[in-house]
Amino acid sequence: MFDTILIANRGEIAARVIRTARAMGLRTVAVHSDVDAGALHVALADVAVHIGGAAPAQSYLRGEAIIQAARDSGAQAIHPGYGFLSENPDFVEMVEAAGLTFIGPSAAAIRKMGLKDAAKRLMAEAGVPVVPGYMGEDQDPGHLEVEAAQIGYPVLIKAVAGGGGKGMRLVSRAEDFVDALERAKAEALGAFGNDHVLIEKYIQQPRHIEVQVFGDGTRAVHLFERDCSLQRRHQKVIEEAPAPGMTEEMRAAMGSAAVRAAEAIGYSGAGTVEFIVDGAEGLRPDGFWFMEMNTRLQVEHPVTEEITGVDLVEWQIRVASGEPLPARQEDLSIRGHAFEARLYAEDVPAGFLPATGRLSHLSFPAGVRAESGVRAGDVISPHYDPMIAKIVVHGPTRAVALRQLARGLAGTQVAGTVTNLGFLGALANHAGFARGDVDTGLIARDLEALTAPDLSDDSRARATAQAALVAAELWEASDAFTGFTLWGPLSRLVPLLHDGDDVEVALAVLGPDAVTVSCNGTVVEARRGAGGWRLNGALPADHADDGQRITVFAGPGLVFDRVDPLSRGGAEAAGSDVTLAPMPGRVVSVHVRGGQAVEAGDRLAVLEAMKMEHTLTAARDGTIAEVLVREGDQVEAGAPLVRLEEVEA
């Protein structure tokens, strides 16, 4: 067993690996970019080494710098986490050539599973069922269009390299194929440096069920399945284990197929074999097909740990150090049920756009396993994935675990950035999900209901009143007359901003511990007793105040900004005349020029942010007055990209 390992990653997975390594008595080394010098994983490690700039290509993707950091710090092994270099076979060979141990599979195994088309051919030879499709070398668009027609629509275009939904497009009609192919290839080339794609039949009521495998290079076992069907744009949102509706017969068939896949490539370490499952007529042994194998630890591995009692990171370290598999198949069993929800900094009403910001407040309730790489005060950077935490729960049954998830999400508090917390809470309370009626289309079908506000008018009124009392400095004050002047009226207006709209709240002081709060015709009676304030007789929600922004944790949280009347009248948004960058990112392509006529909905530019492409379209018909950016430009949130000519009155 080595005594020092370097974690070639950042964020929650780096913190996760460090915790297990330290529990095993190992010394840990963190690497970090310029912007991560004060990050949680750096604080947790015994040693931290700076490896470059903020962009991944300048730091976490620099294999030579990481290996040098291992040498300089005395590390004998490198754990890659997931993402970045975790599935890069060239990096594995560099690590081994340096005399270090790579905590993961061999370069040969990664290569065999690295390209989806070759992997599917290999799996078919190993007796693992694969989805009908085209996996050939001919990438001519005309040929691919013919192949798609022969397979039959709908089809799925998928990049042969990489994963995470990048380079993937669902095509339902033949006339949409060429444009979808162009976008998939461009996204794949930008993300992976390889624009080759495969085409496969799209299963109409698909479920995404994956099997956790673990091997020692010769023998492998499976640690049962996870259901990852709750997805949006091919990105997993909530995962669970075991899969609802799973039968012992199908579990045995899928587990056996996954083990065959792992042993066929001499797999060592933790890996996941992903299957697409036809859920139209229930789960059955002849209704699942191989999609791909992730040759690394998965983001959702905690749900497997919760139901098996196994620490997968500990197993990775032990097997990489030369130990045999820690358990036989017959030693493993399922205990209860587990869920994991991915909490992201993203603007749900704006179309789930990635968000940034400084976390002024972050807390998780008791009873949940919160896997996070950030703390209050940390910044969600535009350079990396905007995940804040993974909320993990475990219970004796699926129903109990799901209630724990809903309660855990309701008790999670985040301030300083917008999040998908309300969306996750709506999913946890979704009636169909509770019944186990899950498939990859559930979110798309019910998106409007899942993103609708779920707070009552009374709750919103009380939250607004609470924010006004905080802004007026009355919430913590021992003297209810704080903020009012002698001989002045015992009332005042408190201007706030909520969801971009002005909110003007009137406060009328009735006595030392009594204030009437009025907003848009709604009145809230605020009374203070020995236990603090009550609003219309109800206990208030918790809140966070960073001096400018007040977040009231009613539901997923309502955000109010203080307004300085002297600063009003600044630049207003340019309305539909100017297309602004919705978040920081890189301009991938520009599709218009000055003087060109466009119609509402026409594509203007494509912006890449946080590993995903976002198409920006014209808000109205008009003529392009000016294109303000070029391909390759790095822009900040709110930067003007394209301006339309003004409409004459």
Total DSSP E strands? 39
Strand order of the largest sheet: 14-13-10-11-12-15-22-20
What shape does the CA trace take?
Answer: globular
What characterizes the major β-sheet?
8 strands, antiparallel
| Oligomer designation | single chain
Percentage of helical residues?
25-40%
Measured between the Cα atoms of the first and last residue, the distance is 77 Å
Low-confidence stretches: 567-574
What percentage of the residues does DSSP assign to strands (E)? 25-35%
Number of helical segments? 17
Structural class: alpha+beta
Structural description of this entry:
- It is a single chain.
- By secondary structure, the chain is of the alpha+beta class.
- Helices cover 26% and strands 32% of the residues.
- It has an eight-stranded antiparallel beta sheet with strand order 14-13-10-11-12-15-22-20, with helices on both faces.
- β1, α1 (11-23) and β2 (27-33) form a beta-alpha-beta unit.
- α4 packs antiparallel against α5 and α12 runs antiparallel to α13 (421-428).
- The model is unreliable at 567-574 (pLDDT under 50).
